[in-house]
Amino acid sequence: GAGVSQSPSNKVTEKGKDVELRCDPISGHTALYWYRQSLGQGLEFLIYFQGNSAPDKSGLPSDRFSAERTGGSVSTLTIQRTQQEDSAVYLCASSLNPGGANTGELFFGEGSRLTVL
Amino acid sequence: SQKIEQNSEALNIQEGKTATLTCNYTNYSPAYLQWYRQDPGRGPVFLLLIRENEKEKRKERLKVTFDTTLKQSLFHITASQPADSATYLCALPYGNNRLAFGKGNQVVVIP
Lengths: 117, 111
Prior knowledge:
CATH topology of chain A: Immunoglobulin-like
CATH class of chain B: Mainly Beta
CATH architecture of chain A: Sandwich
Radius of gyration of chain A: 14 Å
Largest sheet of chain A: 6 strands, mixed
Structural class of chain A: mainly beta
Helix content of chain B: under 10%
Strand content of chain B: over 45%
CATH superfamily of chain A: Immunoglobulins
Shape of chain B: globular
Number of helices of chain B: 0
Shape of chain A: globular
Oligomer: heterodimer
Order of helices and strands of chain B: EEEEEEEEEEE
Helix content of chain A: under 10%
Largest sheet of chain B: 6 strands, mixed
Distance between the termini of chain A: 33 Å
Number of domains of chain A: 1
Number of strands of chain B: 11
Largest interface: A-B, 27 and 25 residues
Number of helices of chain A: 0
């Protein structure tokens, strides 16, 4: 497809379980971001991948969160030992020219809604 | 980092009127500012980018202003339509190519 694809769209899990969320960015986009959006809150930055550079992990809330991006394309966000406060919508975005004055916009997927019971 | 403030109260407006939203930020002035639209259950969609040396930017019925002295951006929807009902987010760059988002401002256009 032409847009950013995320799966699953909805995930319900029990507290303590691990979950994996997947993001397939737009082809050719070198930058990939993960954000978290809790109910009534703004988008919270989690992690940023740019090409082959080391990812910017400064937004990850705890060591239970990790992400990888294989082959500069698909990314997986993993949350280990999930807690109820992890419940949120996890949004992935990709960009062709992050920080560029002309095309710095982010293209978002529809998000993965995570509910931890 | 940046603190971004958008009005948390929904803006209810009659169809055909102009909706005006405010985005205020603290700390340093960014090189540019972006506005996104988000519908319920969907990801944000980019609308407009305005650079620090631009006072105003237009796209169809949308107009954005950027006042680096006031540290404020205004977002206008002219001749509003019910289809414009959504949450509008402002976003500013910071750090290493990251974007910080405001919490958004909901607009409800009443037919």
